Give the backbone structure.
Amino acid sequence: MPSESLFRLRVFRRWGLVLAYAVALSAAGWEPNIKEILLVHFTHTDLGFTEHPVVARELQRRYLDIALDAALATRVNPLGARFCWTVESVLTLDDWWRAAPAARREQFLGRVRAGQIDVTALPFNNTPFLNADQWDVMVHWLPEPLWNAVRPSAAMQDDVNGFPRAGARRLLDRGVHLLWMGINSDGGGPPLPAPSAFWWKMPDGRRLFVWVGLHYAAGYDFFETRSWRRGPVPHAADTSYRPPRPGEIFAADEASVRGGHARCIDQLRALANRGYRHPLIILPVTNQWRLDNDPPLPALAAFVAEWNKLGLQPSLRLTTVSRALRRMESEVGASIPEYGGEWTDWWANGTASAPRELAASRQTKRNLAAALSPVWGPPGGNVKSAVANLYRSLCVFDEHTWGSSMSAALPDSLDSIGQFNEKAGLAYRAMAESELLLSQRMRTLLARAEEGLYVANAFPESFSGWVRFAAGGLRGDFTSVENAESGAREAIRFEEGMSPWTRPRRPQDMTEANTAAVFADRVPRRVAAVWVDNLAAHTVRRYRLLSAATTAPSNTTGPEMREDAQGWPIAATWNGMTDPLFLPGVGDLLSVGVKGFPPRWRAMDVFKAAGVTEREKMRGELLDELAAAPAGKAHLEDTGHTLIYEQPLAHARVRWAMRRLEIWKSQPRARLTMRLDRLPSDDPEALFIQFPLPTRNVLPRLTNGGSEFVPYRDQLPGTCHDYFAIDGTVKYDTPHGHWLWFSRDAALVTFGDNSVLMKRSAAPSGRGRILAMVFNNFWYTNFPGNSHGALEFRFDLLWRDPHTPSGAAPSPEALVLIAAGRKDEPLYLRWLYRP
């Protein structure tokens, strides 16, 4: 035991702190306007960042047991001394619930009913790339009986700098009208000064009460003067680091509590000086091991109890998020402002650091939409279950954590690669499973069909274009097809492609992109193409396969084309158009990098510059904008139905690049495909593909999660104007017609110019120039640092008459199945083809 002299020294120090505290308050002579502080304790959930996502989920599951036991241990205490815990992400509850025995589940529900444990409405903190179907899954993550038992009334979005309006509307549909936003201002910021509150009005008139809170870990700094954490961000498995022990933070002895009170008064004074006037304040509290993915702090209840026992003011209450937000709503709801518009996200650019994985997730969404098409008949239970599970995987993929805390600093470390491998696998596995599911839907419908080529349009808009498939699937010497209904015949177009296991004989047997040089990929007649015209939505068309030759189409009509000196199109105008479909510069490739050392820190300096003038000066000095140049003349091919232009590009940041522009002859439509091989680089870089359109000063219409908005005009104040996450379509409605642009792979756009580190506050002048952001690794953490190699991006552009509705973008693709005319193996039909 300690010696008597040491004991006296401790007592002296303790009462010395109390005396110093009393003197400080007396000298301050300041009475806070805040009468009560509500502490909301939770763990911020990252599926990764601090450690591998599998470990993070296991930790979170275990944390819920800690919180439950802490709540049970204090359940008979006075109200002010009970431990309270908020489940930020219901993914944690879902994981825990599946493993918990019945008695443990009942204990949990008992603490929910008692108000000590709160469950929020969403499974995790999300990026803004979810579609409408994913949002339906997000708000139905828990089994319905469990949802009804815990009855969430509040949703939380921590870290992320935005929240799609589509998500807000789904929350209201589920009876949730409280939204907590704990924004991390690094790389962005809240739309209003934090902390504050506002009413978020939806287009249909409904409203969400929104608390724009402080950073999710900010509550600690209101009571403690020194950081307990030791960096960097240690793994839970790193035994040289540990969570704080009882008494190391939020110590409950009188001296420590009074010291915390003095610190709190200073912080509240600072809030008042910044304009905070409400008599109530909500402070978020997380543990201090790493802040993210940290365990509950049971000792917090004793700290709060001692504070209130001492009669300190403001009073302190440990509570849950829904109770805190309801209190705040009743206190300030009548006096706060109301805003409408989309809540665009500053952190959305991070997703562009993984262009392949993003493309895979988008392909999966199209596959799932096609699998549910009525063209196949009503989906059975197996189909519905498979689709629901795949959408859950896609939702987890769109969760906000995309990698290790060291993902940009140590991009090749096992930790960085391992974490992103888990994230990427969600998209790739879902893509593969959705492809199989879609093929099963097709085979089940057509397995007993008579011989022929079947082309299906599983989407809600008509399809016109080429359908391409492996020529090897034509088990015969077929050269043309005949529409089984109309009798119209069409020649099969055979194109070059790869021949696996074929040794290249000469360099000319390979495309420029075939740097591996393993198999020849310019082998004739490897790809078959059939032109399909006006295939109605949700229909299947049968073609007979013919060996007799059919004359290729000789359609010489088409748009009036203008080309530059290198033969690349700069305008295309069809009859009835007063303006061309596009302007010079379509398909141009642009990169933006940072000059000087160290580049990522210099980029942050630009973003944090005070004022527009200083920021623009720094952007001009530090950003290096470089456009690709033609590496040769464009090659033109007339397919009869389309004109195809191909041109190689040269750029310092790519090994090779090839752009291909296909022009429809029969309608004002074009398709750009850009293939490029990005060179490895750990430096920050953004890549854009541009589409200048003659839409003058008209603002476009965008959709996110199926919810439409007009950028720059229909946004919450202070939200991101530099780039926008979209479902895929950009629409311009002008007196001269409707321009529709659709992106298959990329999901971020900006307008006018590159906008990197710009922090726009208004619409640009060149709003008809679309810049598709196909790559961006400016984020210094949390997202992959160096995606490189061969990448492909496809975009469609079309024009519609001003007197007709703009409608939706055309069906992105048609599906092909070749029926042999014989009955399939019955066991295949039963066990292989059926979903």
